[in-house]
Every structure is written in structure tokens, then in C-alpha cells.
Amino acid sequence: MLDSNSLYITDENGVEKRMIILFTFDSEDYGRQYVVFQDPDGEETEIFASAYTDEGDLMPIESEEEWEMVEEVINTFADDEEEVDE
Predict the structure, then answer these.
(1) Of 5, 23, 12, 7, whose CA–CA distance to 56 is shortest?
(2) C-alpha distances out from residue 57 to 2, 30, 33, 39, 50, Å
(3) How far apart are CA 84 and CA 86, in angstroms?
(4) Distances in Å between the alpha carbon of 82 and those of 3, 10, 75?
(5) CB of 48 within 8 A of CB of 36?
(6) pLDDT score at 82
(7) Are the C-beta atoms of 49 and 74 separated by less than 8 Å?
(8) Helix (H) or strand (E) segment spanning residue 76
(9) Distance separating alpha carbons of residues 77 and 19, to the nearest angstrom
(10) pLDDT 10s digits, 32-73
(11) Which of the four, 38, 43, 49, 77, has the lowest number of CB atoms within 10 Å?
(12) In angstroms, rounded to a whole number, what is the distance separating the alpha carbons of residues 65 and 14?
């Protein structure tokens, strides 16, 4: 489930956990929407990503090519954030 700046996932133990949404983006190449998020209680450098539906359901990123595209977007975002901090 997605709300304005958080999403809630259920871990392998069935515990619901709040994550902070860093940003979302669409890919015309894959025809999917993606959300990039972080665990507020986890390591600051650990970032997660998932595709999602219009209803807010998370979907797995299935191919190596799709992961490479998502990682490229994340790296661009991280580079932009570093420039703002300087």
C-alpha cells in the first residue's frame, strides 16, 4: 500500500513495516511504474525498489535488464541529491 510518502510492506514473518518513499518514476520501455524506498530503521545506504500497480500493489522486478534500468535511475537520483547537498 502506498500513501503520500510511505509504503507498508509485510516481511517474511508477516510483520507490516513502514518504509519511506524516496521517489517514484514511470518507464515507457517497460510500461510500468516504480517506487524507490528505504527502511527508516535500516542502514541509510540500503535502498529498495519495486514496480507497482495503479492500485498500489507492489510487483517484483523480474529481469536483469529491468533491474539495470532501475539502478541507473537510482544512481542518477543519488548523483542529483549529492549535488544539492554540496
Answers:
(1) 7
(2) 8, 17, 11, 18, 10
(3) 6
(4) 26, 31, 11
(5) yes
(6) 67
(7) yes
(8) helix 64-85
(9) 18
(10) 999 999 999 887 778 999 999 998 889 999 899 999 999 999
(11) 43
(12) 30
Confirm if 7 and 21 have CB atoms less than 8 A apart. Answer: yes
pLDDT (0 to 100) of residue 33: 96
Provide the CA 15 distance to its chain's centre, in angstroms: 19
- Specify whether the CB–CB gap between 32 and 50 falls below 8 A: no
Residue 36 CA: distances (Å) to CA of 7, 16, 33, 86: 10, 18, 10, 23
Amino acid of residue 81: E
Residue whose C-alpha cell reads 518514476 in the numeric block: 25
Cell of 79: 548523483
35 Cα distance to chain centroid: 3
